[in-house]
Amino acid sequence: MKQLLITGFDPFGGEAVNPSWEAVSRLPEVIGDYQLTKLQIPTVFRTAAEAVLAAAASAPDVILCVGQAGGRDAVTPERIAINCMDAKRPDNAGNQPAETPILPGGPDGIFATVPVRAMAEAITAAGLPGKVSNTAGTFVCNDTLYRLLHHWSGTGTRVGFIHVPYLPEQAPDGAPSMSLTEILAALTAAIRALG
Ligand code: PCA
User: Fold this and answer.
1) Residue nearest atom 7 in ligand 1 by C-alpha distance
2) What's the rounded Cα separation, in Å, for the pair 173 and 136?
3) Which one of the listed residues 22, 78, 121, 182 is annotated catalytic?
């Protein structure tokens, strides 16, 4: 069996839940060829990536982080992380970096090392909204993906990130959402497409 370390974030920005952890914590232990290890990580710059690094000492085959992107209308594998922290709101430890590099001197951007197009297509093939996203933002999710991609660059461990929409109970008037059942099905389809 291949090993997949999959993470979800704790709630942030005054929300009571984070759909990423609500979904990740309910995934089965095995999907396709992958044995899953699940981890909740804090919505805190740098600390989130450090929590993943600590849990990934055994070098899993794939690390897949999942996060909330309120306002999106699809489950979106992220193509790239950029070397920039620029927070519109404080993280859960009160950090609010502006226009700051994650790793001074690091590459401007690092591409995810999972097959983002195949994952998005697998989600739509399952009858659910899925598309590749070309920006993970400049908050904690992008920070986490960037640090993990940088750490495992050139190794056998592949790293990816999937943003998921609000749950229906979170969505402000008119904002798109997906049910937990739909998010779970979309994540399962994406994991099956990891190869
Ligand atoms: N979403 C935030 C951080 C935690 C989360 O679930 C983001 O998109 O950066």
Assistant:
1) 141
2) 24
3) 78
Contact status, residue 151 vs residue 63, Cβ threshold 8 Å: no
Tell me how far CA of residue 83 lies from CA of 33, 125, 130, 137, 167, in angstroms.
33, 33, 25, 11, 29
Distance set, CA 122 to CA 34, 125, 135, 188 (Å): 16, 5, 20, 9
The answer to whether the CB of 133 is under 6 A from ligand 1 is no
pLDDT tens digits for 92-104?
A: 999 999 999 999 9
Evaluate if residue 58 carries a pLDDT over 90. Answer: no
For residues 112-135, average pLDDT: 98
Distance 43 CA to ligand 1 centre (A): 7
Mean pLDDT across the stretch 114-141? 98
Q: Is the pLDDT of residue 57 over 90?
A: no
Establish whether 163 is a catalytic residue.
yes
Give the gyration radius of the chain's Cα atoms.
Answer: 15
Kindly give the distance from the C-alpha atom of residue 155 to the centroid of ligand 1, in angstroms, as a whole number. Answer: 26
Domains of the chain in start order, with CATH, are 2-192 (3.40.630.20)
Which atom in ligand 1 lies closest to the alpha carbon of residue 66? 6
Mean pLDDT of the chain: 98
Q: Residue written as tokens 């193509």?
A: 79
Active site residue 141: yes
